[in-house]
Amino acid sequence: MKRRPIARTTKHIYNPQRMEFTAKQIAEFIGGKVEGDENATVNTFAKIEEGKPGAIAFLSNPKYTHYIYDTKASIVLVNDDVELEHPVTATLIRVKNAYECVAKLLQMYAATLPKKTGIDPLAFVSKSAEIGADVYIAPFAYIGDGVKIGDGTKIFPHVCIYDGCRIGRNVTIHAGAVIGADGFGFAPNQEGYDKIPQLGIVIIEDNVEIGANTCVDRSTMGQTVIHKGVKLDNLIQVAHNCEIGENTVMSAQVGMAGSTKIGSWCMVGGQAGFSGHIHVADRTNVGAQCGVINSTKGNGETLIGSPAMDPKVFFKAKALYRRLPDMYRELADLRRELEELKKQK
Questions:
Q1: d(C-alpha 23, C-alpha 6), whole Å
Q2: Helix (H) or strand (E) holding 279
Q3: CA distance 63 to 129
Q4: Where on the phi/psi map is residue 241: left (φ > 0), alpha (ψ -120 to 50), or beta?
Q5: pTM for this prediction
Q6: CA dist list (Å): 244 to 94, 165, 204, 213, 260
Q7: Would you say 187 and 205 are in contact if contact means Cβ atoms under 8 Å apart?
């Protein structure tokens, strides 16, 4: 990647264009079938319970079906198999998967909005940093010495990227995230703790998105690596020497201890925790608040609970847990009866 001169300007002010689409145009784009007025137009999105004229909403969760009868949205995306009990005023577009289709429409709409590029004058970028083409660096971001940032990457306000870290192409790092702070390494001695120097870096590959206030620590030696396509939510902690495989997704407040290796295409629920020096296999599903303390068995495994276990075992244990007070009383009664029998001998 060639180094380019740093331009201290930011192009484009956020000003969404008001664009209108008809039900017919939308149906053609997503492969749906119109029920109602194919000329109905929309220019914005809304949740079905907050629908208003000129908005498109969607229905994919059966819990929200009752809203479709009263919604003011002009168009509603619904699944092919939805059966309605009453007439609706909105124009419907039936599709195989309404949730996936609304994601496509949002992506299409986002592509029409002006894109910010350039480096804001209030950002700090080291003279030794290498910045790719069409990069956006927001006010108060910090880019340290020797950092490399690939084409099309977006760095939002108050992001800190420490010295030597490497960021790929089309990466998005949201406000307050810290990339490359020291890993938590201390050696105990008789007087307290000696700090272990953290001499490695962080590597973030292409097409990664990192949420607000998430921290990815630099390695003690070598690299902490976030592979391509990974999506991290807000407030996640990735410790030193960790590695996250391609296209893995994590919800908020996940915590990874040092040297944890997570495979590709894993899904991790909020507040899950991983102890250090373990390996999580590809395509593992980890439930919310799950505590993973051992390496996993193989691809496709689902884990819940703390410590992590198979869902069938977890729910059996949970059922027994609810009965513990009754079982304790029964055991106490049995002990008393046994003591009385002993006295009778």
A1: 45
A2: strand 279-280
A3: 51
A4: left
A5: 0.84
A6: 37, 16, 10, 18, 8
A7: no
Residues 6+ apart with CB under 8 A from 237: 214, 215, 217, 254, 255, 256
d(C-alpha 79, C-alpha 58), whole Å: 9
192 burial (CB, 10 Å; 0-12 / 13-18 / 19+) is exposed
Q: Which candidate, 229, 232, 230, 199, places its Cα nearest to that of 215?
A: 232
What's the pLDDT score for residue 109?
A: 84
Amino acid type, 151: D
Which amino acid is present at 49? E
Per-residue pLDDT of the chain (345 residues; tens, 9 = 90+): 445 545 555 544 344 456 789 999 999 999 999 999 999 999 999 999 999 999 999 999 999 999 999 999 999 999 999 999 999 999 999 999 999 999 999 988 888 888 888 999 999 999 999 999 999 999 999 999 999 999 999 999 999 999 999 999 999 999 999 999 999 999 999 999 999 999 999 999 999 999 999 999 999 999 999 999 999 999 999 999 999 999 999 999 999 999 999 999 999 999 999 999 999 999 999 999 999 999 998 878 999 999 999 999 988 888 888 889 999 999 999 999 898 888 887
Which residues belong to the active site? Answer: 240
Which tokens sit at 2?
């060639």
CB-based burial label for 81 (10 Å; 0-12, 13-18, 19+): exposed
Q: 170-185 as b/e, with b when 16 or more CB fall inside 10 Å?
A: bbbbbbbbbbbbebeb
Q: What pLDDT was estimated at residue 236?
A: 98
Helix (H) / strand (E) containing 143: strand 142-143
What whole-number distance in Å separates Cα of residue 204 and Cα of residue 16?
30
Instruction: Look at residues 65, 120, 107 and name the one whose alpha carbon lies nearest to residue 88.
Output: 65
Which structure tokens are listed for 210? 């990192």
Angle at 233 between CA 95 and CA 306, to 5 degrees: 100
Segment holding 166, helix H or strand E: strand 166-167
Collapsing DSSP states into helix, strand and coil, what is residue 69?
helix
Indicate if the alpha-carbon torsion angle 207, 99, 39, 32 is positive or negative: positive
